[in-house]
Amino acid sequence: MRIQFLGTGDAFCSGGRFQTCFQVIADNFNFLIDCGATSLLAMKAGDMASDLIDGIIISHFHGDHFGGLPYLLIDANYQAKRTRPMLIAGPPGVEKSVQNLLSVLYPTVKIAELSFEVIFKQFNSDNTIEFGPLAIETYPVIHVEEALPHGIRVLFKDQCLAFSGDTGWTDNLYQIASNADLFICECNYFKTVSTSHLNYPTIVSNLNKLNCKRIILNHLGPEMLDNMNSVNLECSYDGLTIDI
Fold first, then answer.
1. Is residue 244 part of a domain?
2. Does residue 64 have an active-site annotation?
3. Is 240 within the bounds of a domain?
4. Residue in 10, 54, 64, 75 annotated catalytic
5. Which residues pair with 131 in a beta bridge?
6. Distance of alpha carbon 183 from alpha carbon 217, whole angstroms
7. By CB count within 10 A, which of 17, 77, 143, 236 is most buried?
8. Are residues 235 and 225 in contact, defined by beta-carbon separation less than 8 angstroms?
9. Cβ–Cβ < 8 Å for 177, 183
10. In this structure, how many other beta carbons lie within 10 angstroms of the beta carbon of residue 209?
11. Start-to-end Cα distance in the chain
């Protein structure tokens, strides 16, 4: 898998970073993990066509993680004239949540009337779901409960890409990160303690138990960006590309 970090910032685009969005290519299957409100802009800045995207996995229903979906859908429909299906996976109620958001921003646009079929797949924390050639495992994490936050494991052949989503500390992170080739872990704060986001000391103190091959910190807020000289773990940045 090849992972390109299109957006690595928080909800406020701290440091001028785009909101969370990762493009992943597994053989010929091209998908996004999260699609923050700035994602289409990030894609266009990188000369990436929306029609290249086969699917999108959404970790939770906050605007900086799924708010870009309406723009991607209308771009695929009106600009790219897409005809092939698009997969979208997300927490329970994903189809309704995406349609509701689209209806607020573009009241006359209906998913069922797009030039292409959108196939929705709903997370089931007790089972693995199929997503094209991938298998997706999901685990509840601790964030804003109404956003239905999940951590994600993407399995392809013998590879595993793990993503914490937005979360405070939860022991489910051990399962999410276990034996992952790459674990993308949110680290919104440097020292501030929060029930809904992680800080740097908490990640460092649990590093040996996370049992992943490589960890990279993401969703960096102002406090993290102001203390980068004191951070010894690898941090993401917009445009970073990693092969696993």
1. no
2. yes
3. no
4. 64
5. 134
6. 9
7. 143
8. no
9. yes
10. 11
11. 5
The secondary structure element, H or E, covering residue 155 is: strand 150-156
Instruction: Give this prediction's pTM.
Output: 0.97
CATH code where residue 58 lies: 3.60.15.10
Q: Which residue range is the domain that position 145 belongs to? A: 2-229
Round to whole Å and give the CA distance between 236 and 2. 14
In this prediction, residue 127 carries a pLDDT of 84
CA torsion angle 61 78 46 166 (round to 10): 0
Q: What is the mean pLDDT of each run of 10 residues along the chain (244 residues)?
A: 97 98 96 98 93 96 98 96 97 97 97 97 90 97 98 97 98 98 98 97 97 98 98 98 96
In-domain check, residue 238:
no
177 in a domain, yes or no? yes
Q: Number of folded domains in the chain?
A: 1
pLDDT of residue 19: 98
pLDDT in tens, 119-146: 999 998 778 999 999 999 999 999 999 9
Backbone torsions φ then ψ of 69, nearest 5 degrees: -60, -45
The DSSP letter of residue 75 is: I
